[in-house]
Amino acid sequence: ITHRLVVGGALATQDFTPVHHNAGIAQAAGMPDIFMNILTTCGLSARYLGDWAGANSRLKKLQFDLRAPNLPGDIMMMAGEVVAVMPQPSAALVTVEFTGKNSLGMHISGSATLALPGKK
Predict the structure, then answer these.
(1) Three-state DSSP class for residue 27
(2) Distance (Å, rounded) from C-alpha 15 to C-alpha 91?
(3) Looking at residue 120, what is its pLDDT?
(4) Is the pTM here over 0.90, yes or no?
(5) Which of 8, 29, 4, 9 lies closest to 19 in space, CA to CA?
(6) Helix (H, G, I), strand (E, B) or coil at 1
(7) Sign of dihedral through CA atoms 102, 38, 52, 106?
(8) CA 3 – CA 21 distance, rounded (Å)
(9) Which are the contacts of 40, defined by CB distance < 8 A and separation ≥ 6?
(10) Is 64 helix (H, G, I), strand (E, B) or coil?
(11) What is the pLDDT of residue 90?
């Protein structure tokens, strides 16, 4: 997690809340530094899932809970597990439970459903 990722993600999602780009304001709010916004976490999760599922996959549903913040200088490790496969006529719907952890603990915990075309 870099300052550039946190600030760039906030600006790209038009989240101008100062705690995502102004360290002094984040520190005044009790944080050690700026921290990642929800939409950047959502985008990183979708990218992780899409990279796993492949270019022809489609993210159908995404649910998650946020916990510990993602701060610059830390590393978030993503992991996932397929928990259900539902065959469909032209694809398989796959449910994946996933997590993202950093040095503070669990950053994100969620579930996603993806369509995998050509898989039955």
Answers:
(1) helix
(2) 36
(3) 55
(4) yes
(5) 29
(6) coil
(7) positive
(8) 8
(9) 5, 6, 9, 10, 12, 13
(10) strand
(11) 87
Backbone angles phi, psi at 65, to 5 degrees: -120, 140
Tokens of 22: 């102004």
Q: What are the tokens at 11?
A: 């600006």
Residue with tokens 């599922």: 53
Spatial separation of the C-alpha atoms in residues 33 and 120, rounded to whole Å: 47
Q: Give me 52's structure tokens.
A: 């796993």
**The two three-digit tokens of residue 89, written as one number:** 């006529």
Q: Which of 94, 105, 108, 106 is nearest to 40 (CA)?
A: 108
Q: Report how far residue 8's alpha carbon sits from residue 61's, in angstroms, rounded to the nearest whole number.
A: 25
Confidence of residue 23 (pLDDT cuts 50, 70, 90): very high
Cα–Cα distance, 7 to 16 (Å, whole number)? 9
DSSP state of 78: E
